[in-house]
Amino acid sequence: MELSNLAVHARLRSPWESIDLGIALARRHWWPLFLVWLLPAALLFAACHWLLPDSPNWSLFLIWWLKPAFDRLPLFIASRTLFGEAVSVLGALKQFFAQNRRDWFAWLTWRRLSATRSFDLPVTLLEQSSGAARAARIGVLHRKHASAATWLTLTGFHLETFLLMALLGLIYLFIPEQVQIDWIPLFSSGAPWFEWGINAFYLLVMAAVAPFYVVGGFCLYIGRRIELEGWDIEIQFHRLRDRHQREQKQRARQASRAPAAAQLLLLCAVAVTTAISIPPASAASAETPVQARETIDEVLAGDDFHQVEEVSGWRLKEIERKDSEFPEWLIALLEWLENRPVDSDSESDWGPFIGLLIEILLWATAAGLLAYLLWRYREPIRRSLQLRRQVEQKKAAPETLFGLDVRQSSLPADVCAEVLRLWQSGDQRASLGLLYRATLSHLIESYQFEFADHLTESECAQLVQLRQQHPAQSTGQAEAQLRPVSAALSGFVHQLTTSWQQLAYAHRAPESARVQILCDQWREAFGRDH
Amino acid sequence: MLDTTCLDTTYSVETPEGIDLRAQAAGPVPRILAYAVDVFYRTLILAALGIALAFADRAGWGIWFLCSFLLEWFYPVYFEVMRGGQTPGKKAFGLMVVNDNLTPISWGASLLRNLLRFADFLPVAYAAGVICMTLGRNFQRLGDLAAGTLVVYHQPEKPHTSLPDVAPLAPPRGLQLQDQQALISLTERHADLSEARQCELANLLEPLTGKRDKEGLHYLRSVGSWLLGGK
User: Fold this and answer.
1) Percent of chain B at pLDDT exceeding 70
2) How far apart are the C-alpha atoms of A148 and A19, rounded to whole Å?
3) pLDDT at residue A282 in the model
4) How many CB atoms lie within 10 A of CB B37?
5) What pLDDT shows up at residue A367?
6) Cys-Cys link to B56, which of A21, A261, B21, B60 (CB 3.0-4.6 A)?
């Protein structure tokens, strides 16, 4: 029995799952299992037909009673298949008597009606145990799986009956309506050929169901053994050990190569420094990956990686504070309602109370409505509180745009002089850049433009143009306070932006005269701000 | 990772996220028995109803037939959809009906699979259903195939197992998932497997652990306990 050849997946299964596995296994090898059950039984059936032609039912009963004998060959094939050994139908048939030698009498007499037949049969057939040993073994196996084995037998028995009915029913359905058969004499007088025919069908059904029943019980037995003996663990441990040994062999091969190289190095070292003799082992120890890994493991297991720190101190306990479910005022209200002086007139007693209740409800509705309205129109309300809005706006002014510092504080005192000085010194990019960011800075500070991070240079220029064309429609809440933009400023921003884009991205510098004009325009636009 | 060469009854689905979902498909024997339990319950209900309605004469008969019709066709549908895919019979055997992508069964699928019991019944006594179930790869009967459903085992919560009394130890490097699972299994089953067999299993790993018998077993249990979260 070589567990590594096991054809089924070894894992812990419930008894029902084991039976299902048996069904799957029987399905896969159904033909040989069916044939090795059917052929001996059919042979006996034919012999009975010849010897006792008048008692078809007794013949069938004989075959039914001999089931344990016929069950052994399917079990034999299944047990060999489970461990990856193929058995041919002919080879199995030759084994018929050899397989039936052990305990055949017991199985055909007092054990014939055992409800756990297919579960117990492997103990006899595969473990070859009998007598007290068998009883002890069966006791252990039955502890958990006996009920499933019993239900398997019961189901198999009923299934045979139902399938026979189904087979006969199917045949009946296919008899054409035109064919008139007189059924009554067939059933009442018992025509022998009719009974032999039905019994032959029953034999076929028995042979068809037997593989599933036998292999189902066998897999139930295997499932119990996997559980009892830890087959799943054994198979996995075998794999782990094999893998480990393979890896070790590989490592040893690598290691044997490494010291050779190390020794070669060592020889050179010895040749150079003949004074000191270094022990070869210590030099090699740091070289091989195996030993290096061991050192690493030692370090990892050491104290450095397992430091435990104890921290003690005072901290607040998390006390679960359970608030009263009803607020104080509600309790007070109820108490007040209860303690109210009761009117002497008992009929009008409820009137004021209900009135009060409705009043409270109305007030609550009014409060709710007010809260809802406040929430619904929260945006316009907030907008009308302009003070807060402006504070926010100041805060939101960006510090850099397109990577340029646009804070007022970063600009020189006389922007135009600095621009022209830089231009003449040849640093055109810095020069025009300064002019551009000074413009942006002033647009933000003096004109309250909101240049968001995502805008491009052209979009900024478009914003300026937009406010020039439609001063009233431009975005922003506090329109009255936004400074209008003159046509000259808008034109200047447009020209400057174009020049800056040309220089910054296309590396095409404007003429000096043009820079001069831009500077003049800048002075006109923003000069007064200083 | 599942060894595909080994026969098993596992049904697996891969979700679009690349997660493997697995369930154990349930075969004909527990399903036939679960069906028998359901038939038993239905018969009880109908018998009680019959006794109660015996006084209503012909109207009683009418109501009884209506009820038996509803019970025959909609008893499974109700339980499958409203009770997590389990009729009382299926519950008794730990079975549940799911869609074939392992999601809870829907109304449409449940109605279809139960109305098609008619096809499974042919020619008599559910022969077609039983044969189809036995021969199908995932034990589906005709109704299941049409509705795209599946009967699987309901995986119960694992009862808490007592662990052996050992101090946890960090495992050696290079253990794969299955190795770790086997070690955990060995630790968890310390009371079920015989002591001699456990030593035998521990000796298999002697090249790794360098220990034998009791000592080796003790070490493996320590590692298993560590893998189970003991610190």
Assistant:
1) 97
2) 8
3) 45
4) 16
5) 96
6) B60
Q: Give the tokens for residue A431.
A: 């020069």
* Contact residues on chain A for B33, CB-CB shorter than 8 A: 151, 155
Q: Domain segments of chain A: what residues?
A: 3-178+187-229, 237-294, 352-384, 397-529
Interchain contact, A229 vs B197, CB within 8 Å: yes
The widest CA-to-CA distance across chain A, in whole angstroms, is 134
When CB atoms are compared, the residue of A10, A170, A233 closest to B186 is A233
**B24 in contact with chain A, both atoms CB, cutoff 8 A:** yes
Predicted complex ipTM: 0.89
> What one-letter code names the amino acid at A386?
Q
Tokens 């730990």 sit at which residue? Answer: B94
- Flag whether residue B119 sits within 8 Å of chain A, measured between CB atoms: no
Candidates B3, B4, B6, B7, partner chain A, best to mutate (most A CBs within 10 A): B7
Q: Do the chains contact at A24 and B192, CB–CB below 8 Å?
A: no
Q: Kindly report, residue by residue over A6-58, the tens digit of the pLDDT.
A: 888 888 888 999 999 999 999 988 999 999 999 999 999 999 888 888 888 88
Residue A385 tokens read as 């509180």
Q: Nearest C-alpha of chain A: how many angstroms from B28?
A: 7
Alpha carbon of A338 to those of A335, A353, B10: distances in Å? 5, 10, 69
Q: Which of B125, B32, B110 is nearest to B76 (CA)?
A: B110
Long-range contacts, stretch A84-87, CB < 8 angstroms, 24+ apart: A84/A2, A84/A5, A84/A6, A84/A7, A85/A5, A87/A32
Query: Hey, of A3, A11, A17, which one would you mutate to test binding to chain B, going by the most B CBs within 10 A of its CB?
Result: A17
Question: Quick check: B33 and A7 CB within 8 A?
Answer: no
Whole-angstrom distance, CA of residue A57 vs CA of residue A61: 6
Task: Flag if A244 and B30 touch (Cβ within 8 Å).
Answer: no
- pLDDT tens track for A198-239: 889 999 999 999 999 999 999 999 999 888 888 888 888 888
**A119-144 per-position pLDDT tens digit:** 988 888 888 888 888 888 888 888 88
- Number of other residues whose CB lies within 10 A of the CB of residue B221: 23
Which residues on B lie below 8 Å from A232 (Cβ)?
A: 182, 185
Distances (CA, A) of A481 to A3, A446, A465: 90, 11, 18
DSSP-H helix ranges across A273-396? 280-285, 289-301, 328-339, 350-376, 378-384, 386-396
Beta-bridged to residue B12, according to DSSP, are: B22
What string of DSSP letters covers A46-92?
HHHHHH-TT-HHHHHHHHHHTHHHHHHHHHHHHHHHHTT----HHHH
Q: Does B198 touch chain A (CB under 8 A)?
A: yes
What is the per-residue pLDDT for A397?
65
Nearest to A171 by CA among B142, B126, B123, B132: B123
